[in-house]
Each structure stands twice: as C-alpha cells, then as structure tokens.
Design a protein that fits this description.
133 residues
Length: 133
C-alpha cells in the first residue's frame, strides 16, 4: 500500500469521524444543556492535553498565557454558538455550515486583508460557488 493511498485513507477516516461527531453531539444534547456538554467535553480534554504538553507548559510566558486565554475565549464562543445552533437544527445542516466556513475563511482573507491565496484554493472556492449558484 503506497504512502499516498494511506494518506487518502487517513483523510477519509478523519472526514468520517468529523461528520459522525455532529450526530453524536446532537444526540448528547437531548440529555444535557449546551454549556453542561461543553463543560464536560473540555474538562475531559484537560488531563490528556496537560500530560502531552507538560514540557511546553514550563516554558510558557505570561504574555503567551494571556494570549492563549484570549484565543480560548473566542474559541469557546465559537464552540458554544455552533453547539447551540446544532441543538436547533439538523446535524447535516450544521456540518454543511461548518464546512462552508472552511471555504469562506480564505475568501474573507482576500476581501478584507488583501492576501493572496493558492490557486487550488481559488479553484475550490470557484467550484463551490458554481455548485450552489
């Protein structure tokens, strides 16, 4: 089995698990609130992350810590809005909107920050536009 084929299988597996999580989270939200679910999810994630990054935590400066706090607050807001939205809609619609943001971010970078994007990304944005127009 070639390395390229293994990479394609790994990408397919990641996409599968990413898609399945929308259904799992939607099901979990029938038994808990959005914030209870997120609190449990992130509390369970803390110990393995602390263990995995234990050497890097000692090198953390105060500025890095506060930058992480600010980024964490914004990311929590994103997770909270996405999870609250998932409680109100279907997993497929939520996954579609989340996946669409993958294409919109480079486009917004071009529009607002005048950055250049790779030709393949531009082609993907164009093809997505063709598919939904």
């Amino acid at each position: 089995m070639s390395l390229r084929f293994k990479a394609h299988l790994a990408l397919l597996l990641c996409a599968f698990f990413w898609g399945v999580t929308f259904v799992v989270v939607k099901d979990a939200l029938t038994d808990s609130s959005v914030f209870a679910y997120l609190a449990a999810r992130f509390t369970l994630a803390i110990p393995p992350l602390v263990w995995f990054y234990r050497a890097d935590l000692h090198k953390l400066s105060a500025a890095d810590f506060w930058a992480g706090v600010r980024i964490g607050i914004l990311m929590f807001g994103g997770y909270a809005f996405q999870t609250a939205g998932l409680k109100l809609t279907s997993p497929s619609k939520s996954a579609f909107l989340t996946g669409t943001s993958t294409v919109l971010v480079p486009l917004l970078l071009v529009i607002f920050w005048r950055t250049r994007i790779h030709l393949w990304r531009a082609a993907g944005i164009f093809l997505l536009w063709l598919a939904f127009s």
